[in-house]
CDC20/Fizzy WD40 domain-containing protein (Poecilia mexicana), 500 residues
Amino acid sequence: MAQFGFENDIHNILKLDMPITNAPMARWQRKASSSNTSGLNTLSPGKSANISLSSSKTPTKTPGKNKKTPSKMGGDRFIPTRNNKQMDVANFLLTKENEPADANPALSVESQKAWSVTLNGYNIEDAKILHLGGKPLNAPEGYQNNLKVLYSQVSTPASLKKTRYISSTPDKILDAPGLRNDFYLNLLDWSSRNVLAVALDNSVYLWDASQGDIILLLKMEREEDYICSLSWTKEGSYLAVGTSDCKVQLWDVENQKRLRSMTSHTARVSSLSWNDYILSSGSRSGHIHHHDVRVANHHISTLAGHSQEVCGLKWSPDGRYLASGGNDNLVCLWPRVQEGSSNSDGQLIRRLSEHQGAVKALAWCPWQSNILASGGGTSDRHIRIWNVNSGSCVSSLDTQSQISSLVFAPNYKELVSAHGFAHHNVVIWKYPSLCKVSELNGHDGRVLSLVLSPDNATVATVAGDETIRLWKSFEMDPVKKKAKERLVNSASSVIHQSIR
C-alpha cells in the first residue's frame, strides 16, 4: 500500500494541472481579452483567477537594462542657461491659463505687478522660459503683440558712446583781400596770446581773436615786394616776417616796432620756425639759415640739404629736431643748434625721399615727440607718418588731393589736413588709424594754410578765395575741461607756495 501511495504522490507532482506563471498567454485568453469580456470570469475552473495579464507576458527587457543612459553634463546646446526659478514660474503661468478668470479680482493689475516685483524681483507676467546672458529687455510700452519677448541683446558699448558734434559751417569768416595765391608761402600764424597774423600781399595785419580788433602792423616800402612767411615766438610777443627781398624782420607786436632786419639769404624767405632764441629760415635757394637773434652777428649756421625751395619748416616741440620740406620732394631732419656754435654747417640726420611731390605740410605730434607727419603736393597727395628715431614710415594715406598744411589737434588726438586741387577742403583724421572723422567744406579756392588756436579748440584756414575761416571743431568736453583747469590751477598753486 505504501508503494501505491508513493506512486500517487509522484503522479500528482508530474501532473500539469497548476498554471505555468511564465508561459505565454493562451490563445483562448487572447480572444477573451479582445472581445471586451470580463476577463477573469471566463477562465476555466482549473486556472487561477488572481493572475494578471501583464505578469503572464514574456519579459522583453534584459534585467539591468531598464536604466537610462546618463545625459551629457550641463544644459543642451539650444538653451544655454536654465533658470529653475523662471521654469517654475513659467509652469505656474501655463497652468494658470486653464483656470477660470476671477470675476471680481481683489487687486488691480498695477497692484499685482507691484506685489510681483516686490516678492519675485521681476514682473511675473514677463517671466521667460528661455534666458540668455545679459539683462533682458522687455517689450516697449504700448506693445500690442501678445507674444512675449523671449530674446534680447545688450546694446554694444559703441552705441552708448557719445560722439561730438562737428559743425560743417565755419564759426567766423574774415575777408583777406590781396592774399597771394601761392602754394609755397606761409601767410598765417596764431600766437599763444590769441592774436592771428595774416600777410596780405605787402602788408601784415593782426586780428585779436578775443576782442575782435584789427591792427596793421607793417607795410613794405616798395610795392613790388611782398610778404612770404610769418612765425610767432613761443611767448607771442614777437613776430618774425620773411620777405621777398631776401630779408627776415623781427617785430615787437606790443609796441608795433621793428626791432631788426636780418640779411643773409639770396632769395625770398618762404618758411620760418622758432626754437627759443634761434630763428630758422628757409629760402627759395634751398638753404636754411639759423639766426641767433640775441647777437649782432645773427647768422650762425647754414643747412644745405635741398636743391629747390624750402617751403616747409618745423622745429619739434622738445627742440631736438628741425624738419624741413622742399620742392625737391624731400623731407630732411636736422639736429638742434649747439650752444656757442658759429658759422658751422649742420649735419643732416636723415633724408626721407618717399614723397613724389613738393613737401610743404609738416607737423610734429605733441604727445609723441618722435612722430612727424608730412604731406605731399599735387603729384603725391599722400599723408605719411614717420618715426624719426628709426626713419621708417609708420603709415601712409592717399588723400586724392594736394596737401598744403597739416596740424595735430591734441584735444581729440586727431590730425587735420588742408587741401588744394582738387577738393579745396579741410579733413579731420583720427590718429593713428587715419580714419576720416569729418570734412569741412566752404572755401571756393585751394586752402593754402591752417593753424590751431592756443586752446586747441579752433582751426583757422586761409584760401585762394581771399577768406579766412574759423572752424570750432575741437572744443573739449566740459567735464574734461574743468578737470584740466583744476589740474593747472593746483599746479600753479604749488609753484606759488614753493616760491614763498
In short: Residues 36-58, 148-161, 492-500 have pLDDT under 50 and may be disordered.
